[in-house]
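Troubleshooting log. The previous structure file for this entry was overwritten by mistake, so regenerating from the original sequence record. Sequence copied from the archived sheet and checked twice against the printout by T.R.
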Amino acid sequence: MPFLQDIIDGIIDMFFPEYCVFCGKHLLPDEHFLCIDCNLDLATVTFSDFQDNTITRLFWGRLPLQYAFAFMHFVPRSPSQAILHELKYKHNKEIGFYYGQVMALSMKDKGFPADFDLVLPVPLHPKKQYYRGYNQAELLATGIAEIFDKPMETRVARRIRYNPTQTHKSMTERWQNVQNLFQVTRPSRIEGKHILIVDDVITTGSTIESLATELLKIPGVKISLALLAMAQEI
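Regenerated output below.
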């Protein structure tokens, strides 16, 4: 049977070949989205402490975080940029679910505490989600929730204001841009819960801070973060 499966895989690959999203090289059957060479060049994050690291320090004095994890560094013109570009702009939903699982397996391998109760992707405004067709954070969160066997919530909070892109804004402008951005819609679903917020990339953390600030108004809520990528300047 394994021999038959190899034949089937070979036929599928012949008619529907897959290529590395960064270098364009033809992928082998056991390669996914990146070839082995580009995967080795991926700038993964090496946190050894999930309570005191670059991300948790970014939120000192802003949010009481339990734990924080990031899978890779965002590096311009690199495999990490290619992954994010496919996820956000190329409508590649499969890459989101796949790297959500990769994130979760990395979290488990590195000993990330699994005492969170639910997984919450950062909501998109309905207008932006309509034009994109999906929420990239939700794809990542789906993969994480599956590996950790935790529920994912997408209706306990919503984005109530359509804000302009954060690109090219200063830290002050970014913070002003995300004020009063979210609303908790089902507080009873998260009361007393430890929430793992999931997003694709973090720069200043202003969007996450805006969301978490609203969540923390609910009694007993605790917050942790899981991010696909973190900007180099953090």
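Residues 43-231 form a domain with the Rossmann fold fold (CATH 3.40.50.2020). Archived copy saved in two places this time.
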